[in-house]
Design goal:
InterPro entries: DUF2179, N-reg_PII/ATP_PRibTrfase_C, UPF0750_membrane, YitT. The chain is of the alpha+beta class. The protein has eleven helices and four strands. The chain has two domains: 195 residues, no CATH class; 79 residues, Alpha-Beta Plaits. Helix 4 runs parallel beside helix 7 and helix 7 crosses helix 8.
Length: 296
């Protein structure tokens, strides 16, 4: 049976997931009531639309958050998974409860501080909720759906839809609140990325060297890193295309703080070693964070 057709009750009632969601919703509620709403600042997505309609036409924000998210949650139920839809519905419901029953005082009137810290709190909240398995904004679902059915990428679709929201904000509230809303949204999405993916970026380092045995020993024994080895060939240079040799292609995952030191150590073994680096978003398992003794 397809996992998205079943409900994983263990995930739904997992204490860690629930803590992530509850804390994340609390952060989002503080961002809305203590920073964004009193100053007519918008976020992106469904939350942004709800704020726009609430401030512009006086419709109850909690009602809007529920009604506007229903079609996206239904789409998530069908296209993403039932467990995800239940956790997202719980997140939205909890947010409306907190907004209805808890009042947060306005923290500051400074517009830059509101945009930066409001976006930071909102992004932190959204990121924690995502780590808990849910969402409070259905735009993520529709973005994924449209991406599979159009030539546009997910980021292009997100930018287009949120641009429409910000243009609407400029029309209803004026240019300045719309510009601050863009700053709020940008802060929120960058913070969300950090919370979901982690602050520490990892790098995949791939090395091709005639001294492959020495390079493998250096990385594993001196730096304490795990490696993966692919069988390949080196050579095929423009001047000597007919000359090539079998070799081991070595790949390891390191932190960005270790890249330069490892590259220097490899060049000391083989000055003509070829390597390239790739930034990767997430790694799990294996030997990643263990740092071996310093190689001089």
């Amino acid at each position: 049976m397809n996992p998205k057709d079943s409900i994983d009750w263990r995930s739904i009632f997992d204490p860690t997931s629930l803590v992530y969601i509850v804390v994340g919703v609390a952060f989002a509620a503080v961002a809305l009531e203590a920073f964004m709403l009193p100053n007519k600042f918008l976020d992106g997505g469904v939350t942004g639309i709800a704020i726009l309609v609430n401030l512009g036409y006086g419709v109850d924000l909690n009602l809007l958050l529920v009604l506007l998210n229903i079609p996206f949650l239904a789409l998530g139920w069908k296209k993403v998974g039932k467990t995800f839809a239940i956790q997202s519905a719980f997140s939205v419901f909890l947010l409306t409860l907190i907004l209805h029953f808890v009042e947060f005082p306005t923290v500051t009137q400074d517009k830059v501080l509101i945009a930066v810290f409001g976006g930071f709190l909102m992004g932190t909240g959204i990121g924690l909720i995502i780590r808990g398995g849910g969402l409070i904004d259905g735009f993520e679902v529709i973005t994924e759906y449209f991406q599979k059915n159009s030539a546009l990428s997910a980021s292009e679709i997100t930018v287009f839809l949120n641009s429409l929201i910000m243009l609407s904000a400029a029309f209803v509230f004026g240019i300045e609140p719309a510009m601050y809303s863009i700053l709020t949204y940008f802060t929120a999405i960058k913070t969300t990325d950090y919370v979901v993916e982690g602050f520490e970026e990892y790098t995949a380092l791939t090395i091709i060297s005639k001294e492959d045995d020495k390079v493998k020993e250096l990385i594993v024994k001196e730096f304490g890193k795990a490696i993966s080895v692919y069988k390949g060939e080196r050579g095929y240079l423009p001047e000597t295309f007919h000359i090539h040799h079998p070799c081991d292609i070595i790949m390891t995952v390191v932190t960005r703080l270790e890249v330069h030191r490892i590259k220097l150590a490899i060049q000391a073994i083989d000055p003509k070693a070829f390597f390239y680096v790739q930034t990767i978003k997430e790694v799990k398992g294996g030997v990643i964070k263990k740092v071996g003794k310093k190689h001089d």
